[in-house]
Each structure stands twice: as C-alpha cells, then as structure tokens.
Amino acid sequence: MAKLPKPEELAKVDFKPPKTGWMDTPANLKPGTFCWGAKAKNLQVVDFPNARDWNPTEDDWKLPKEWEGTVLEAMADRLSKYRSFKLFLDICVRCGACADKCHFFIGTGDPKNMPVLRTELLRSVYKKYFTNSGKVLGKLGGARELTYDVLKEWWYYFYQCTECRRCSVFCPYGIDTAEITLMAREFMNLLGLNTDWISGPVSNCYTKGNHLGLEPHTITSSVEFFLDDIETITGIKVEPTFNRKGAEILFVTPSGDLFADPGTYTAMGYLMLFHELGLDYTWSTYASEGGNFGFFTSNEMAKRLHYKIYAEAKRLGVKYIIGGECGHMWRLIHQYLDTWHGPADFLEVPRSPVTGTVFENACSTKMVHVTEFTADLIKNGKLTLDPSRNDHLKLTYHDSCNTARGMGLLEEPRYVIRNVCNHFYEMPENTIREKTFCCGSGTGLNASENMELRMQGGLPRANAVKHVHEKYGVNMLANICAIDRATLKASMDYWVPAVGVTGVHELVGNAMVMTGEKERTQDLRLEPLPGEEGNE
Amino acid sequence: MTLRDSLSERKENIIEKWFERIIDTYPPDTSRFLKDQKDRFANPVGATISRGLEGIFEEILKDEQDQAKVSKFIDNIVRIRAVQNFNPSQAISFIFLLKNIIRDELTVDVLHNHNADELLALESQIDGLALTAFDIFMNCREKIYEIKSNEAKDMTFRLLQRANLLKEKQNHVADDMNDVTQ
Amino acid sequence: MHIAVPFFTVIFLVLIAYAGIEAAHLHVLFGIVIPYAAFTVFVLGFILRVRNWGRSPVPFRIPTTCGQQKSLPWIKASTVENPSSTFGVIVRMALEILFFRSLFRNLKTEMHEDRVVYGSAKWLWLAGLAFHWSFLIIVIRHFRFFLGDIPFVLEMVEGLDAFLQIGAPLLYTTDIIILGAVTYLFLRRVAIPQLKYISLAADYFPLFLIFGIALSGVLMRYFFKVHVVGVKTLTMGWLSLSPVIPENVGVIFYIHLFLISVLLAYFPFSKLMHVGGVFLSPTRNLINNNRMKRHVNPWDYPVHVHTYEEYEEEFRDKMKSVGLPVEKE
C-alpha cells in the first residue's frame, strides 16, 4: 500500500518552491487565474491581426508565422515612440521598493507578480535584442531569448496587472509598470492574443457605441425603466433627452451604469440631480460609453473608441461635456483625450449654469468630472440635502486607482459624501488616496472565469474594508468607478459579506430633497428609508 | 499539571511553529514576505493567518469553546486558501499540522504527567476543527460559484425585468381594451 | 553565479592593475591612457545615452499624481505631490533627487498590537541616501586634486566630513559611511529572498566595484599613505593635457585609479544611468495640467473610426421607432 502523505507534504504538492531562477521557470496557467481567449468575430470587427478562435489552455496558440519578428519590430517601434518605455527598461536598479506594493503579489504571493519582476519578464527580452550588454553577456546580463514559453509567460502575467500604478508611487524613479503592461499588451495584440472579456466590449463599443452593445432603443428603454423607479420613489416624472442638438451640455458615463446594479442606482442619481437643477443637457446613444476597453489592447484602439465623445459633442453643438463616475475613463479623458482628439476648440470653457463657476482646470479638455460639478453645487448651497436619509449607511470610500494616481481627484468625492451622509469613516492611511489598493479586477480582468485571481487581487482592498467594518460597523463602500461598482460587489460578497457597494451619486440622489417631491419612504434601491421600515 | 496547562505554558512557541510550518507551504520568496511584513494592510495573508492561529489556539485552551469564534478564525484563514489554487486537502491541512507540533512539544510532558487521555481528547478536538475547516472550504468554493452566477444574472437582470414589465404593460393594455369593449 | 562572477571580476581587475604596475611597469598605460580613455567613454557614453532617451518623445502627459489635483479654488491642492506648475515640478524633482521622496513613502512607523514596528523599507531609504550622499561628498573632496588653490567651500566640506577629529590623517566620516552603506545594500540583496530572486550580476558588480574603490581609497589614505604631492602632479597633468608620471606613487593608487576607470567606462552601459534617467522620468517631471493645456503627440496619426453617420445608418429605424432624432429621414 502506498504511504499516505503527511499534512506538510500534502500542503506542498502544488506549491514547490521554484528551484530554478525566474528565467527558467515557465508560467503555469492555473485555473481561475486567466481569461478565455478572444473570439475571431470580435477581432474582425475592429480589424485586429490574427483573428481566430483560440484557447489558452491548449498548447498551440495558433500564432502567426514569424511572430517573433513581429514582436521585436513592434518593440523597436515603441522604443522610438515612448520615452517612458525605453527609460523604464533602462534605469531600474532592482531596489525592490515596489515588490510588496502590488495587490496581485500581496494576494497571490507569486514572485512574478512583483512589479520589478513583471517588468523584468519583458526587460530580459529587450536586453537580448536591443542592448550590447545583453547580446554579449546573455543570461548573466539578465537577457534571454523570446521563445514560445516567454510569450506565454507574458500573456499570463501582463493579464495579471491592472495598470493601477501603485508601484509607480513608491519607485524612486517613478517607473510605472502600467507603461510596460500597455506595451506588452500591444505586442500580444499584434499576435491576436487578446482575451474574450476585453475584445467583446471593444467590438461592441466600436459599432454600437458602448461596451455592453446596447443599441439606441435599448438605451432609452433602460433609462425609462429608471424613470419609472424615480417616479415611484419621488413622485416626480423626470424627462431626459437623447441625441438632442443645441443642448448646453453633453453627459457621458460608462454604459455599465445603465445595466447592472448597483451602477444603475448611480445613473438614477445623475438623472435626479440634473432634473432638479433644470440642466439643459442631453445623453447620447452614439457616445454612450465613457470607459474604453480599447486601452487594454492598444493605444490606437483606445484612440479609435474615444473618438466618439468629441465628435458627438461637435455634432450636437453642445458647449461642454460632463463625465460620469468612472475610473479608467477619467485617466483617459484627463491624460489622453485632448492629445488624441483635441484641440476641442469648438467647445467652450465649462461654466456651471447653476453657480456660475468656471472650471478653469478643464479649460482645454472641456470635460468636467461630475463630482467636481456636484461639489461646486453643494459648496454654493444650490442643493437641499437631507443626509439623514442615508443614516442607515456607515460609509467608507474607495479611491479608484485611475482618478487617484492619474488625476488626483481625491477631495471632491469626499466633500460630496460628507455632505450627503452623516457616517463616513476612512480606511487606513496607506490603503487610500494615492496609496489606494486596486479593486483587483481593472483593465478588463473583471471576467468570471478568472474569479480566483480577482479574489486574490481584491484581498488587500477587502482587508482594509474589513478593518473599518469591524471597527466602525461600516456597511457600505462608496466609489466613483463603474468597474469598482461591478467588481467590488463580488469582492465584498466573498471577503466582507456585510458590506454593500454604491456610487457617490446614488447617495446624492437619496439625500437630495427635490422640488415637489412626495414624502420619500424608499431609497433608490426601493428599500425602506431609515425610520420607515415599519411602514411598509 | 493538566495538558491544557502545558499547552498554555508553551503557547507562544507552539503558535510560532504552527505559523512557520504553514508559511513554509508557500514558495520561499513568498514565505519571507508573509513572515516579515508586519503591516496587516500590506500583508493581509500573513496577518490573517497569524491572528487566526492565535485565536484558534486560545479557544482550544478554554474548557468551553466558543464554536462561533473558532469558526470565525478558521474561516478567515480558509477563505484565503480557498482562492489560492490549493486543492481541498492542501487548503485545510494546516489544522492537522497542529497535532504534529503538539506531539513534538508535549510527548515528554504527557509521559511524565500520565495524561495521554487528555492528549487523545485534544486530538479528537483538532479533528473536529478540521471538519469545520472542510465545511468552510466548501462554503467558500460554493460562494465563488455563486458570485460567478450572480454576475451573469446581474448582467441580464435588468433585461429580464424589462421584459417582464413590457409583458405587464401589454397585459394592462389588453385589460384596458377589454374594459373598453365591455 | 550572479554573485560569484562579478565578485571575481573585481578581484581580477585589481590583479590586472597590480600586475600591470608591479610586474610590467605600465605606468603610462594605467596612469594616463586608461584614465583618459575611460573618461572619454564616460562623457560621450553619458551624453549619447541621454540623447538616445531624449530622441524618444513623450507622446502623452502621464504624471503619477500623489496628491490632490488643482480643481476648485476652495479645495486645497497638493502643489508638490501633484504639481500644477513648473515650480511645483521643480520642487517635486528636487525632493525626489536630493531626498528620495518616493522611497521615503515606505517609511512608516505603525502600531501593531500595541508595539511600534518600523517598515524594513526605511532602511533602504536610509542606506540609499547615505550611500549617494557620501559618494557625492567624496567626489567633491577629490576636487582638491584638480584645483590649484583649494577654495574655501571645499575646505569647509572637508572640515565637516572630518568633524570627528580622529586619527592622522583625519578620518572622513563619509569613508566609513559609504563602506557601511554598500555593505548593507549588498547584504540586503543576499538576505531578502525576494530581492535575491530578482537580483542580477549587473546589480552586484557595481556594488563590488564601488566597494573596491572605496576600500582602496581608504587604504591609500590611512594605511599605505600614498605620496599625495605626486598624485596631484599627475592629476594636474591630466588637466593640462601634458601628464607626467610622478615618482614614488604606490601601486595601491594605480589599483584605485584603475577601478575608477572601469566604473567610468562601465557607467553609461549600465543601470547606473539612473542618475541621468531620473531627470527624464515622465511620471515625475511633468505638470499635471492635462485638462488646462493640451499636450501634443509628435507621432500622432489618424485612425479608423466609426462615425455617427455609419452608426445612424445601421440603427436609423430603431432610433426612429423610439423617437430619437436622426440626421437623415
């Protein structure tokens, strides 16, 4: 009879320490930690190369001929186009300051998830083909050849980075792994190594205007549904317009908020707020997506998808644009949109029609973040607020990576929250603001098939929430990102089940006393308000 | 001297060894990080395991265990291991490690104090913890699948709701028409 | 392998210099030719490398923002951590380069179960700062070999550095600090498994080399007492471009000089270029005024887009059916 394993042996079976150095340890695709391969049809819609159905678990990834040449050529090209890429590959001293800053390393413990090593996966190939030291010294100089195994390793680990930029905050040279991941994904995009979860929304967004593929009539009927709920709650009939020419403001928000709870409640919050202000604004079914999954494939695709926002603003003849609560959407609007599609000289510098405030900080891009807009309203006393309607909530606030580290939008949402809620508690200092932890599912990693990875990556964030949950009884996690609203819900469900997830404008919608509203008994989720529980 | 007295005397030593052995089931690069990073927010895995073990052990020392409390501590640890690519036996094996450590530590005491029966009772108690851990592991895995299906449902919920509503509306229209014709 | 090869390389370099002087009497080669060559490689290499980085444009303005943006006037903006002006960027870069601001972020003193715990990263920051600053001060001290009259500032630096007033010649604190810091930086790489895992030969080599340089310098100053006037004759000779090999300068000086030459020649091809690179880092040296001032991408090119017309063409009937306005009926 075979000897039964001891507990120690059992525990070690799959977790053998890598005896070999990292260069010689090929990636092992563990179930639950990667996404399905892209379908041919989705790649064809946007003319992506090597469109075919493929499966990452099979040995043959159906790569195009001469794929090594394609990658190296693209690498040479990007080195000449991006100083960030070239510089970051050259100057890392491997001091290790970033090592334990990555949520994926913290959650998975996989050494290749240390930002320095993630970059080294690509840097080693760069050295081999583009530096003299690498050509001469080979492995000793940290260089290695681009092989099938290396490519698979890239695919596995560059789809375990959410481009959250936390490592870049701690790096003494500001090396930003997001810049490296962006390039790695560009190279893999050239070989058709996209994921289904990213390429589907990209193709939808290109032709239908939004990631979810909602067609114009579906968008309006989705919104109508919210209007019914708003009427039930407040007795007020809100009448938004779509694709209306001559409106003063175009409103763009991620499509996720039109579709999945709890984002839908945030959308209701926008509708109520703009109605109450009597804002002359319009939605668009064509520019119906603020987010941009194209950014997770290539710079070019990202540019193609974000074209619609300015184009639609121009067609409708609006004066400026307000953008809804979304993370990577705002990194792109703030740091990329104007460069891609500006100058937006057909628009005017945003000026709040309610308070007269001119948003000088958006004088070139002409896009205002909705929390900037609302914070200004509250500061000027233009909203009647009853924060006690949110008294059943004890809130904490999660900074989205992109708005925190790619923009610096930290106080505006906090100011809004403090004015619409009475119970607000911050998470520990090294887990918020510029040091915020990613939800664990950004950059198109919010699929279902990689749930184990998402849970591991989400642990550092959830752990901080758990702390305030245990200490202050926090039961609601506010954020300003559509992906957060979708994915933190899952993460909370697993790690801290007693905590729900909400957008900031849902809280605004609840607290705002609207002109002519009936006495409210329900919140936007159609649940009884505090003090009304017995009256149902 | 009872077995429990011996245990509480060596509490720190046992917990430390237990923690080390669990951490050793991770690759060395990981285990050093899990051991050394003391900030519970920078190292939730290590911190949760270390606090969990202490909690479990303290409950074992009591005459009357608070089952809910023990479950809570086991839950914290198993919940992490359930998404870390361990298979079920690996994920809950950490409970059994405690038996070996106690045997190593206390064999001499047990022989000296003639309380082998207490040791056996304790071991049965640890077996019970393992069963609890197994239940929790299964709950966690079920939770993962539930979350997956919930996400799929969330995506279609509004659609279904609308479809139902449309149907309701059509019924209303039909009712109204009936009213008219009647 | 990653440690042994660089270690023995440095030993080998020492032996070359020793043999070259003691056995082969190649004073001109080691005292004049190699230093000139190394200096040339260093200067040209450095310039070319920076120019090479400079040739790649910065297509997007991508600062990593580490504080509140400038938005509404009543919200206090973080003018340094999230600079909205050139001045802010200058301060941010100065803090980064002079005090390693980002590494300092790791510095956290926290309470854990009622006891204070210091993050290990504090030591990295401290050792890094100690190493770089003592290196700089040592380089400045060496200016005395290249200047006819010693300026007051230099004497002040030397005086401060020797403030302990121990020994003859007076002991420089930076000599001790740099040896200590390099030793720490080495031990850290070996002792922390994560770091050992990521460390390459290129990480150990400069540490050994710099240790060798500092050690030979210390030996020369405090133990073998090299003929200083002779050394200065040589260094001033380099400057006048008519160098002469002085008499009676010990072999230890040539070892020191050879290791420095290797460091200079190696510098532009290595990670040591972070000295120049940090100034160019786009996540640190750009102003976060993205929405105020348009950033131009020099290689921007037109892309295929899906126009509104195409969109309406596809969905016109559906749009009309729900009363959405259309361009063409």
Describe what you observe in this structure:
The complex is a heterotrimer of chains A (536), B (182) and C (329). Helices cover 45% and strands 5% of the residues of chain A. By secondary structure, chain A is mostly helical. Chain A has 2 domains: 21-194, no CATH class; 201-535, no CATH class. Chain A starts with 6 loop residues before the first helix and ends in a 25-residue tail after the last helix. The model of chain A is unreliable at 10-17 (pLDDT under 50). By secondary structure, chain B is mainly alpha-helical. Chain B has one domain: Globin-like. In chain B, helix 2 (11-23) packs antiparallel against helix 6. Chain C has a single domain (4-303), classed as Transmembrane di-heme cytochromes, Chain C (Fumarate Reductase Cytochrome B subunit). Chain C is elongated, with a radius of gyration of 28 Å. Mean pLDDT of chain C is 90; it is low at 109-118. Chain C has a two-stranded antiparallel ribbon. By secondary structure, chain C is mainly alpha-helical. Helix content of chain C is 59%, strand content 2%. Chains in contact: A-B, A-C, B-C. Chains A and C meet through helix 3, helix 4, helix 6, helix 7 and helix 9 of A and helix 2, helix 5, helix 8, helix 9 and helix 12 of C.
Topology:
The complex is a heterotrimer of chains A (about 525), B (about 180) and C (about 325).
Chain A: H1 7-12, H2 40-45, H3 67-81, H4 83-91, H5 103-108, H6 115-130, H7 132-137, H8 148-158, H9 166-170, H10 177-190, H11 196-208, H12 216-234, E1 249-252, H13 263-277, E2 281-283, H14 299-316, E3 320-323, H15 327-341, E4 367-369, H16 370-379, E5 395-397, H17 401-405, H18 411-420, H19 451-472, E6 476-479, H20 482-495, E7 500-503, H21 504-511
Helix pairs in contact in A: 3-10, 6-10, 8-10, 12-13, 13-21, 14-15, 16-18, 18-21, 19-20
Chain B: H1 3-9, H2 11-23, H3 28-36, H4 44-61, H5 67-81, H6 88-113, H7 116-181
Helix pairs in contact in B: 2-4, 2-6, 4-5, 5-7, 6-7
Chain C: H1 4-23, H2 27-55, H3 86-99, H4 101-104, E1 109-112, E2 115-118, H5 121-141, H6 152-161, H7 173-191, H8 193-198, H9 201-223, H10 228-239, H11 251-266, H12 274-280, H13 308-321
Antiparallel strand pairs in C: 1-2
